Amino acid sequence: MDMKIKKFTVILFWLLLIVPMVHAHYLWLELENYQSKINKKNIIHIAFGHIFPLGDVSNKINLHDAVQPMIGILDRSELDELYTVSPSGKREEILDKEPISIKLKEKGIHWIVAEKKVFLGTCFDKKAGVVHCHIDAPREELEKKGLEVMEYFYAKNFAKTLLKTDGDHGNISKPIGQELEIIPLKDPSTLHKGDFLSLQILLYGRPLAVTYVYATYKGFSPDEETFAYTTWTGEDGIAKIKILKEGVWLIKVHFQKPSPRPEVDIERLCATIVFEVKK
User: Fold this and answer.
1) Which DSSP symbol is given to 101?
2) Within 13 Å and on the Cβ side, how many CA atoms surround 4?
3) Model-level pTM?
4) Closest by CA position to 82, among listed 35, 28, 37, 136
């Protein structure tokens, strides 16, 4: 097969696999401030939905409900992991319940990290004649309720948010070890409008080629799944995002594959990072 045709075929295969994922809920962490001081209290909001930024912090999401809002807050108990990574690489679990807050003791670049794994079903309710999306329940339980399971997937959500405390000490480009991870190759908080931010996307620690990267900033749009900038990675897993405006940014990336589990159709991974570009 001609190399150009072969390469196009590979790209088309990955696009067909990735594109349907854009409309899945994604996880991110919002802060009230992205620049802090030693021992200053920092409030964290666990956001889950389709619209950035969060907005109403009183809107709670219950993944067991048949109808999900487009955006809301998750309880700390819904997460599998919530921790900080200090400039020296020390990991410390965040045990606070709502409102979640942390006080940092080390100067430099900190990551606040979250992880959530969940089994979700998209079901058709024959009696009501409606489709229920993303119900957190075992497949057997959904079927016993008379729901037709259209798709059942295992979703893994990974989130990182950048918080700087009194300086720039630390390696911002060092991977944390998430299964799907967005690695900024430069400190985004040092950028300005018109600059480009290079990112590397890692899947199981290796560069992920030919995958879409979505970016938006606070205030761009109130509509769901609407992003200010879209690009994709090269063979080295690297993509470039143009900073269109100063402010708080979110970048996300998806990956999915058929599941080896007989009761699960698809395994989906989603990763986000949030950071602030100062004016």
Assistant:
1) E
2) 0
3) 0.84
4) 28
